[in-house]
Design goal:
Elements (H helix, E strand, L loop, with lengths): L1 H23 L21 E6 L9 E10 L2 E10 H6 L3 E7 L13 H9 L2 E5 L19 H12 L4 E11 L1 H12 L5 E5 L5 H7 L1 H11 L7 H6 L13 E6 L7 H13 L4 E6 L10 H9 L4
Parallel strand pairs: 4-5, 4-6, 6-7, 7-8, 8-9
Antiparallel strand pairs: 1-2, 2-3, 3-5
Length: about 300
């Protein structure tokens, strides 16, 4: 019996000391700008909660959930910071990641930003958007809630000293594509964007899916017939010429949630207006990231334009 007990003790100690090794990497001054918990009660930041990551992620980055103020609302968000940033005490480039879904579905989980951070070696921030996950306010699917995205950029620029916005990338999946294109259209701090399975024609999305009609009417306030401007304003295909930064677009040809035709049409518009766009497609029905995407994204992020 002693040998099995000894073996179990050895395994337990190995796991314990492995955890200690990575915790030690974060052994910095409590008030250091590279210790995210130091931002508690600064610039509208509160409720900072360290997230316990699993497996390889725990060896590459640290993640926190927090609350920030956007307009007058309390909004939930995540940030993941590579260990290299903390160890070197040098600001790292940032990605603002825009999730899909709405105030009822598609919430970020504890590892979404960590996966992107670990794969790209960048600081990644993502908002749950107002009205979601215990936040206040109302999701408008690309209305006033767009401020929830630009406020994260403000924090990176003016508050989070560990973050650099010199080569700021904004990325989005599905509905997050709306938020991404709209942010790039209006905020000159954005230097490149990534759109995965992204909505780029909300009128087409409305007409393609009966199950989305009521959802969109509830969030936007009416149908395309009632509010044509609101739908066009959320649809990059109508103002593709206003995108002035490089784009990486990834879309599956058989995507049932957001049609491939939306990506095709937007890519044509980008070609027409000489917008730099790398268009990656897959012969499957995946909606969201493929495992292969992270290598493509990392290589593209490291290119000079």
């Amino acid at each position: 019996m002693k040998k099995p007990l000894a073996l179990l003790l050895t395994i337990a100690l190995t796991i314990f000391f492995a955890g200690c090794k990575h915790t030690a990497k974060l052994n910095i001054s409590p008030d250091s700008p590279y210790n995210f918990e130091s931002y508690e009660n600064k610039s509208g930041i509160s409720d900072i909660e360290p997230i316990a990551l699993n497996g390889d992620l725990s060896e590459k980055c640290v993640t926190y959930k927090f609350t920030y103020t956007s307009d007058i609302y309390s909004v939930k968000a995540y940030i993941s910071i590579p260990f290299g940033c903390i160890e070197s005490l040098n600001p790292y480039e940032c990605i603002i990641y825009n999730r899909g879904g709405n105030s009822k579905i598609g919430f970020l989980d504890n590892e979404d930003t960590a996966v992107i951070s670990a794969e790209t070696d960048r600081i990644v921030l993502a908002s749950q958007y107002r009205g979601a996950d215990g936040g206040t306010g109302q999701d408008q699917f690309g209305g006033d809630d767009l401020t929830d995205v630009t406020t994260l950029i403000d924090l990176c620029e003016n508050c989070f000293e560990c973050a650099s916005i010199d080569n700021l990338c904004v990325a989005g999946v599905s509905r997050g594509g709306i938020m991404t294109y709209m942010t790039a259209r209006t905020d000159s701090r954005v230097k490149r964007i990534i759109a995965v399975s992204a909505v780029s024609d909300l009128l087409k999305a409305y007409n393609d899916r009966d199950d989305m009609k009521t959802v969109l009417q509830n969030y936007i306030g009416g149908s395309p017939d009632d509010l044509p401007y609101e739908y066009e304003n959320r649809s990059a295909v109508y103002w593709a010429d206003e995108i002035k930064v490089p784009v990486l677009m990834i879309h599956s040809k058989l995507d049932k949630q957001v049609s491939f035709a939306q990506a095709e049409e937007l890519n044509k518009k980008f070609e027409e207006y000489n917008v730099s766009c790398k268009f990656v497609s897959y012969d499957d029905d995946v909606h969201g990231f493929h495992k292969e995407d992270y290598k493509i994204i990392s290589e593209w992020l490291n290119q000079s334009f």
